[in-house]
Amino acid sequence: MSGAGKVVCVTGASGYIASWLVKLLLQRGYTVKATVRNLSDPNKVAHLKGLEGAEERLQLFEANLIKDGSFDSAVHGCEGVFHTASPAVAAATDPQVELIEPAVKGTLNVLKSCSKEPSVKRVVVTSSIVAVLFNRRPRGPDAVVDETWFSDPVFCEEIKQWYCLSKTLAEEAAWKFSKENGINLVVINPGYVIGPLLQPTLNSTSKEFVDLIKGKEIYPYYVFDDVRDVAQAHILAFENPSASDRYLLTGTARLPEEVLEILHKLYPSLDLPKINTPSNPTFQLCNKRAQDLGVVFTPLEVTLKDMVESLKEKNFLI
Description:
By secondary structure, the chain is an alpha/beta fold. Helix content is about 40%, strand content about 15%. Helix 5 links the parallel strand 4 and strand 5.
């Protein structure tokens, strides 16, 4: 097992991607120091404690993104740190307090803890495609989005996309701090993450997927990633000595009717909405760097099926 004898930290461990990351790290033999906001909340910790290898090699810590020094003890003695903790709120009443401050300050707090620890060899930060796509660059069938694209904070603010702004500013802050303090940083930029849930609660992207199925809220396009691929990419970004810079994880932008068509074939009995969005010119996404890193992408049909099965099993599709 490649992680045997190695200690790593995962922040925000009860989250959707992080729960899978903890599961895969434990499977690979790592000792995992995992942070959560509230150790006494069973919704945050029970599913983690139940993972294979957790009893022997999982240590849980309480940490708060906006509290200075909160991650010091969790990061102590770790070789790798995976920073996944970041608020994901679709509609914020106070974006600065609910999204921007915890995302940016939290990232800097984790990196400050890492900068004090000589044992830390690499930090992998979970960013997002929203820190890539939201700018004024023209998009259409010939546009190829890759790691050189960055979202523009001014543009995010103008269109009031506060979550996108929080992820963009947090990634900017991470690069600046790492360069100034000599931290070996790799950033993962996944798309819209779906797939089976390990945690007992419905996270924001999974809720939006349920909304799509029920026709409540539909986006102009979807750029899906399998949660297991995203977790795997984080591990590859840590384990591969030549990994560097950013990794855009996703493939094609799909129109909502294309997604619903696949779901209809998989689940003819599901009462899916009939929609016809304006033929938005979709664009290409280049995931060559991720493939070169060793990420093997799960076919969308498999991810969609596993997602629906998981939602049914947890009674989220009532």
